[in-house]
Amino acid sequence: MIQISDKRQCCGCEACMNACPNGCITMRADKEGFLYPEIEKQRCMDCGLCERVCPVIQVSADIPFEQNAYVVQIKDEKIRRESTSGGSFSAIAEYVLSRNGIVFGASYDRNFKVLHTKAESRSEMSKFRNSKYVQSDTGTTFRQVQQSLEEGRWVCYSGTPCQIEGLKAFLRKEYEKLITVDVVCRAVPSPLVWGKYVEMQKEKFGSDISNIMFRDKYYGYKYSTMTVKDRTGKSVYAFGIDTDPMLRAFFSNICDRPSCYDCKFKKRYRVSDFTIWDCYPVYDFDKALDDDKGTTRVLVHTEKGNTVFNEIRENLRYTVVSPDKLTKGFREMFESVEENAERTAFFADASRMSGKALFNKYYPETLKVKLERTVRIFCYHTGIYSVVKRTAKRILKR
Ligand SMILES: Cc1cc2nc3c(=O)[nH]c(=O)nc-3n(C[C@H](O)[C@H](O)[C@H](O)COP(=O)(O)OP(=O)(O)OC[C@H]3O[C@@H](n4cnc5c(N)ncnc54)[C@H](O)[C@@H]3O)c2cc1C
Ligand code: SF4
Ligand code: SF4
Ligand code: SF4
Q: What's the DSSP call for residue 280?
């Protein structure tokens, strides 16, 4: 039976809870807001299934095989605008929807809690677009996937690499009609901290908020922003990674799940069909695609992935690249983030402070922050942002 003695050894994928034949595993949030399995020991039959499906215990090896690589933009500009980068996920999901299939991904509920849900139509599927940098609760979706596959339906499941390994371990057999998409995953912040952020924004903008986008292209793709939209869809707040406190918390590794500091899934050769992630230096791959509207790097791991890509390519602008070049030096793919030294203090404060007080204490809007934001926006409006960024990168490389 699963026993969590070291929190770094549980990624919270929920495969064990979905697999237990006796229903004796419940996922419970700890004081940091992350879910862990809790076992009703009296009812446990000691069958060992929970351990056999745990991707942290049964982690897949990083053994080289042939891959194909692309940088990609979906041709539908509305979808690309709504997506995190180039909209590759929507293009892959379309393959399944057009076969009357089901798509699973991370979405918000009405209180902006992040959780995995399903969609069976194009309009419903739009809720998955745009990354939510918070751990998503997969709930019973692994069981729902299994049931749909057993009924003979096509399924596309997207998530973090640990969620995809958890799903595959849970299924314990290959299904021809399952397409899996994982992201290159830096880490996942705490749902409790995210709740504090939502509370702070609701205090400011009332309960009129219709959407919160972690990766809006308000100032363009290369300076993506956290945007809050009102009921009419208008952006009432748009702050970038240098000024928005939730993005600053994410990129300073202060509130991530413990397993993310010792991630077992940082690798190039994966169990998914596709791995997708950002492509900021588009000019290194194809200058013609460098339009600051979003481009995705896509790594295809399987024959099934190749078949899907061949079918969807007419909906894409893309360039074929070398898998080595696509992945080379991409730290988030290969290395865990380093835990912020203030993490313990941050969570102690998070449990007793309001969202506003918490973020003001750790991520205040100082003069330096305001100045940095003004300079970035100025560079954007004058069209020199990309040039400045590229020059700075070259200087730092020397
Ligand atoms: C937690 C997280 C960390 C990431 N870290 C990096 C990184 O360090 N570097 C990098 O280059 N790219 C990272 N990405 C990937 C990047 O943000 C985009 O997902 C990627 O560029 C694909 O964009 P797209 O336009 O093709 O898809 P989109 O249309 O934006 O689709 C997003 C997909 O991600 C899934 N998703 C969204 N939020 C979550 C979540 N919380 N948990 C699980 N799945 C989710 C959705 O189900 C959907 O399938 C990360 C993504 C996530 C979710
Ligand atoms: S050992 Fe079997 S019965 Fe016990 S918790 Fe694990 S899966 Fe459930
Ligand atoms: S990693 Fe997943 S399967 Fe393993 S114990 Fe944690 S929730 Fe259960
Ligand atoms: S960093 Fe690793 S453990 Fe954390 S969510 Fe991503 S894949 Fe899972």
A: S
- The parent domain of residue 277 ranges over 68-189+255-334
Claim to verify: residue 243 and residue 265 sit in the same structural domain: no
**How does DSSP assign 44-59, residue by residue?**
-----HHHHT-TTTTP
Tokens of 12: 């919270």
Do 261 and 250 belong to one domain? Answer: no
pLDDT tens digits, 102-143: 999 999 999 999 999 999 999 999 999 999 999 999 999 999
Q: Is residue 321 in a domain?
A: yes
- Residue of the CA atom closest to atom 4 of ligand 2: 44
Residue 340 lies inside a defined structural domain of this protein? no
Could you tell me which residues come within 8 angstroms of residue 154 by beta carbon, excluding any fewer than 6 positions away? Answer: 96, 99, 100, 101, 102, 177, 178, 179
Question: Whole-angstrom Cα distance, residue 381 to residue 223?
Answer: 12
**For ligand 1, is residue 309 a contact (CB within 6 Å)?**
no
Q: How far apart are CA 346 and CA 359, in angstroms?
A: 10
Rounded to the nearest integer, the mean pLDDT of the chain is 95
Question: Which residues contact residue 88 at a Cβ distance below 8 angstroms, ignoring those fewer than 6 apart?
Answer: 72, 74, 274, 276, 296, 298, 316
CA of 12 to the centre of ligand 3 (A): 5
Q: What is the pLDDT of residues 71-106, one digit of tens each?
A: 999 999 999 999 999 999 999 999 999 999 999 999
pLDDT in tens, 141-150: 999 999 999 9
User: How far is it, in rounded angstroms, from Cα 233 to Cα 77?
Assistant: 18
- Residues 114 and 248 occupy one common structural domain: no
Residue 122 contacts residue 97 (beta carbons within 8 Å): yes
Residue listed under structure tokens 């692994």: 142
End-to-end alpha carbon distance in the chain: 52
Q: Is the CB of 47 under 6 A from ligand 2?
A: yes
